[in-house]
Amino acid sequence: MSGMQPVRGTRDLIGDAFRRHHHVIETARHVTGLYGLEEWATPIFEATSVFARTLGDTSDVVTKEMYTFEDRGGDSVTLRPENTAGIVRALVSNGLAQQALPRKVFYAGPMFRYERPQKGRYRQFHQIGAEILGAAEPLADAEVIACGWQILQQLGIDDGVVLELNTLGDTPSRDAYRAALVEYFTAHRDQLSEDSQKRLEKNPLRILDSKDAGDKALVAEAPTIHQHLTPQAAEFHTAVKRHLDRFGVPYRDNPRIVRGLDYYSHTAFEFVTDRLGAQGTVMAGGRYDGLVQEMGGPATPCVGWAAGVDRLAELLEETPDPVRPVAVVPVSEAEEGPAVELLQMLRAAGVPAEIAYKGNLKKRMERANRVGSQAAIIIGESEVAEGVVVVRNLSDGTQERVGMPGLLPALAAAGVVDAMLEQMVEEMELAAEGDEFDEDESDEE
């Protein structure tokens, strides 16, 4: 690998790629805010035990995919392969699990797994996630799912995406189901892959996640948990579906969705699509009532999901438009002083503005066009003397001379600024009218 190339499985986010990525995160940030979620940021590396305990010592992530190393102090640390564990660790170590619950949390950031890079999947990848910490009610499950569904809708990628839903039951349900799976797979032990034979001894639910073709054939005929649910677990699942109907979230049952670790319970779900080839899951989650306790905190029911930003970005129909600045163009170096003052005035008013650092008028105008400027504000010697500027609309080539007090209204009228600035202009005009009215009143008095 050349030192001048990105490491395999990583990539630079520049231009269109960054705008897609940024749009996904900002949309999720907005929607989760509507649902009352607070954003947390946790370190991108944790003590290795945080993930080994929460992902399972025998999981592929722990045994094959984690970036784990010993730091200079001799401690084993791991780049985070996911962030639910980090959020729960933060809840516990900051003493928040004993305070007012539930906590509703959103996060966004990079994760790291050493796996074979493929379409939409990288060794440094990015995730968004939502967690409701400290709520045991099925309404919480449905709401966090509805939040995820609204993000997909806001991104315009919900078409062709399906919510698949299952239940993992409560502890008695899973114990009965585990016994049924052991009985079933033991009878077919010689047909299982080597990995699944090991899982049969330690955690038979993990066989249901196997990618081996022979295992998949056996899994298709295996018992489902629905045959082993307690009445309480069955009612919880029914309540989740009832609330999803109220939120207007469509779903279909998939009894093969499982989570292999004991701290998972009740709801398990995935938003899936066939628009990304075989790797069809774009958002997945469930209830993990035992995780906080597993990490040393008090018993705390939790539910949440995570989604891959890279995959969601791929599904976007269009790339968000880049910011189109207004270019301030001094005719010569002599006008650079007034040009910089104007530049900062525009930025203070919320207008993206930029200036070329050198060159004659032609060169600076070429720069304005190259960066996609909406308009050029040209300042020459005569304009400085008269207190005006030339506003050239770079979309249609029209231009006009405008006095400085009328610059913002002129930009708004030309359609080269956003609605926020137009509102600001209206407020300025109303204020000016008010001043005139006051002056008239004082004259009459």
Walk me through the structure.
This protein is an alpha+beta fold. The chain folds into 2 domains: 16-170 and 230-315, BirA Bifunctional Protein, domain 2 (2-Layer Sandwich); 326-434, Rossmann fold (3-Layer(aba) Sandwich), CATH 3.40.50. Helix content is 41%, strand content 19%. It contains 16 helices and 16 strands. The chain has helices spanning 16-34, 48-55, 60-65, 84-93, 138-155, 171-186, 194-202, 213-220, 231-247, 291-294, 309-315, 336-348, 361-370, 381-386, 407-413, 419-444; strands spanning 38-39, 45-47, 68-70, 76-79, 103-112, 124-133, 162-167, 252-253, 265-272, 281-287, 302-308, 326-330, 353-355, 375-379, 388-393, 399-403. It has an 8-stranded mixed β-sheet, with helices on both faces. A hairpin with a 5-residue loop joins β3 and β4 (76-79). α1 (16-34) runs antiparallel to α5, α5 (138-155) runs parallel beside α9 (231-247) and α15 crosses α16. The protein is elongated. The protein starts with 15 loop residues before the first helix and ends with a helix.
Helix share of residues?
40-55%
CATH-assigned fold name of the largest domain: BirA Bifunctional Protein, domain 2
- End-to-end span in angstroms? 83 Å
Task: Give the domain tally.
Answer: 2
Helix count from the secondary structure assignment: 16
Strand content bin: 15-25%
Report mean pLDDT, rounded to a whole number.
88
Give a short overview.
This protein has helices at 16-34, 48-55, 60-65, 84-93, 138-155, 171-186, 194-202, 213-220, 231-247, 291-294, 309-315, 336-348, 361-370, 381-386, 407-413, 419-444, and strands at residues 38-39, 45-47, 68-70, 76-79, 103-112, 124-133, 162-167, 252-253, 265-272, 281-287, 302-308, 326-330, 353-355, 375-379, 388-393, 399-403. It is built from 16 helices and 16 strands.
